[in-house]
Design goal:
Aminopeptidase; about 30% helix
Length: about 160
């Protein structure tokens, strides 16, 4: 299964929570431009994704959509995907990562646990009328980890 097929399939199963993005848009905006993270098991099976906007130095990076397969939530896949996105955002010089999440979704607890803080609330769409929480993760205090250097001393045998 290719990445676009996985993303579209998972999106269809979670349409009530996520909404829907047409397949042509997925392929043209995210897959073609490699602006997505697929979180996989050790054996390579996809378990979730993050779609994100174009990175710009000195500006926030926006998460457009994120989802982990329901049967694989609370197993660390989401936080690993966020960590990968943080690495990419730091390499691009982004100042923060922003996203929007409907107030009624359990994902709000995840975003808080991942270090995001709420920055505002706005009215939702025309169909569901739910409140949308705006989140941000400030990257200015996060430094990319460099190589780990271990210093060892050798003591003479006594």
């Amino acid at each position: 299964m290719n990445d676009a097929t996985f993303i579209l399939g998972l999106m269809r199963t979670e349409t009530a929570a996520l909404g829907f993005i047409p397949s042509t848009a997925i392929r043209q905006r995210w897959i073609k431009n490699r602006r997505y993270v697929i979180q996989r098991t050790r054996s390579g099976r996809p378990r979730g994704y993050i779609l994100y906007g174009p990175p710009h130095p000195g500006r926030p990076l926006h998460i457009n959509q994120a989802c982990i397969d329901y049967d694989h939530r609370l197993r660390g896949y989401g936080i690993l995907a966020v960590r990968e996105l943080v690495k990419r955002a730091l390499r691009a010089g982004s100042t923060s990562i922003r996203l929007r999440c409907a107030l009624d979704l359990p994902a709000n607890a995840f975003w808080y646990a991942a270090g995001f803080h709420a920055t505002g609330c706005e009215p939702g769409g025309k169909q569901r009328h739910r409140q949308i929480i705006q989140y941000e993760l400030d990257l200015l205090d996060i430094q990319p980890r460099g190589p780990r250097i271990v210093v060892a001393s050798v003591l003479p045998a006594a």
